[in-house]
Each structure stands twice: as structure tokens, then as C-alpha cells.
Design brief:
Elements: H1 2-16, E1 18-23, E2 29-33, E3 37-41, E4 46-50, E5 59-61, E6 68-72, E7 77-81, E8 87-92, E9 98-103, E10 108-113, E11 118-123, E12 128-132, E13 141-146, E14 151-155, E15 160-163, E16 169-173, E17 180-184, E18 187-192, E19 195-200, E20 203-209, E21 217-221, E22 224-228, E23 233-237
Length: about 240
């Protein structure tokens, strides 16, 4: 009985340490477990990727499910995975201090350079930066997400900045105290405390207010918001703007 109870505690703990990251175009859902393992789940199967030598995962990008980007800030290294979570490439930034790395088009990554405080479009095949943004010395990025043609940066001051494909920037939110956000095909959902909003051109539409500000993770896909409380996922419609 005691062994069963201990097993149950370990099982519950392992569930609580899973964080929902996102849903790809084929409705596969991705989780980060224990900060160092990626889980890919669907109704038929589950696969995972862990790289103990590189430590904790800083961020992942599933914009292209055939070339998933996993970035390890402690080692300035990005790993590219295929749709089975097998490693197909490694990108090392030995001479740079890169805080975030996400997928761009072809063999390119969007990166944030901590030394210059700039967003860059980096071609990892020829090891060359092709575009750079203005300096963000007044801001401290805490979250970085992108699609193929846009980059979104959330700062410590709760400001959300969007960059287009030429790395021209504009502030799209500074009125709310944003604690987290997600983006899919320019649909942006922000979280302020326990309230979720859809955001478009500095207009906000409330989606849902949680009963309490307990720890949750969330992602959006199309017009659906998925919220994971560590045990189950709830889905909500993201309101559209006229």
C-alpha cells in the first residue's frame, strides 16, 4: 500500500510539471516536462525528446512541425528536430550571446542578441545575419515568439512589441500588465493576471476570466484558445475583430 501511495505521488508530480506549449497544424500538442523534455502528443501516439547534456530548454518553436526549433540558452545552442522529434541539425552560437531563437523561413532563425539588444534574422547555413532590428536597450525581453514573417517580444515592463519581416517594430500593447502571450498567424492572445484577451491593433476583447490566478499554461491555434491546468485542457473561442 505504501509503495502504491509513493507511486501515485510521483505520477501526480510528473503531471503537474508538464506545461502546454502549443498545437501544430496537424493538431499535435506539445508540452515541456521538467523544463528539459519535449512531449509530442496526439490521440494515437506520444513521442519525446530530451538532451540532458544541454540542460533546460529556454524556448521551442513549432511553426514548422517538420523543423522544430529547441533552444538552450545556457549553451547558446539550437537543436532542429523533425516531426518524429529526431535531431536533424545543430546550430551553435559560440561567438554570440543569444537569449532566444525561433524558426523563420528556410534555413533561417529569428534570434535575440543580448550583447547588441537586437532582433536578428540569422541564416544558419551560411552563418550570417541578414537583418537586424533597432536596439532595444530600454527593454528587457522575457518572452519571444514568432511565425515565419513576424516576431513578437514581451518585455519586463509588460510591453508587447511586434516586428515585421523587415524587422520594423511597433508597440502593440502597453496598457495591460501582460504576464504571458501566444500568437498564431498574427492572432494574438495575452494574459493579464487571470484574464485572457484577444488583441488586435491595440483593441482588446476578453475571452475568459479564470476563477483564480493559479498556474496555467496556454496556447492558441486558429480561433481556439487552449488552457492547461496541469491535469486537463479546456478550449475557448477567440473572438474576431471587425
Amino acid at each position: 500500500m505504501r509503495l502504491y501511495f509513493l507511486f501515485l505521488l510521483v505520477f501526480i508530480k510528473s503531471i503537474a510539471q508538464e506545461t502546454l506549449y502549443g498545437t501544430d497544424n496537424l493538431n499535435n500538442q506539445y508540452y515541456i516536462k521538467n523544463n528539459n523534455t519535449i512531449l509530442k502528443k496526439n490521440i494515437k501516439s506520444e513521442s519525446q525528446y530530451t538532451n540532458i547534456a544541454l540542460g533546460n530548454i529556454s524556448n521551442i518553436d513549432i511553426t514548422n512541425p517538420l523543423k522544430i526549433v529547441v533552444y538552450y540558452h545556457d549553451f547558446n545552442t539550437a537543436i532542429i528536430l523533425d516531426n518524429q522529434l529526431n535531431k536533424i541539425d545543430t546550430v551553435n552560437f559560440f561567438e554570440r550571446n543569444i537569449r532566444f531563437a525561433t524558426k523563420a523561413t528556410a534555413n533561417k532563425l529569428w534570434i535575440f542578441n543580448e550583447e547588441t539588444h537586437q532582433v536578428e534574422l540569422y541564416n544558419y547555413r551560411i552563418k550570417k545575419t541578414e537583418l537586424t532590428s533597432e536596439n532595444l536597450f530600454q527593454e528587457v525581453p522575457i518572452k519571444f515568439k514568432s511565425d515565419f514573417n513576424h516576431v513578437y517580444v514581451l518585455t519586463k515592463k509588460h510591453t508587447l512589441i511586434a516586428f515585421d519581416s523587415f524587422l520594423n517594430s511597433k508597440v502593440i500593447s502597453k496598457e495591460k500588465k501582460i504576464t504571458d502571450f501566444d500568437v498564431d498567424n498574427q492572432t494574438v492572445v495575452i494574459k493579464e493576471g487571470s484574464v485572457f484577451y484577444s488583441l488586435y491593433k491595440k483593441e482588446y476583447k476578453k475571452i475568459i476570466t479564470l476563477e483564480s490566478d493559479k498556474k496555467t499554461s496556454f496556447s492558441i491555434k486558429g480561433d481556439t484558445l487552449f488552457i492547461f491546468d496541469g491535469k486537463q485542457i479546456q478550449s475557448y473561442n477567440v473572438p474576431k475583430f471587425d
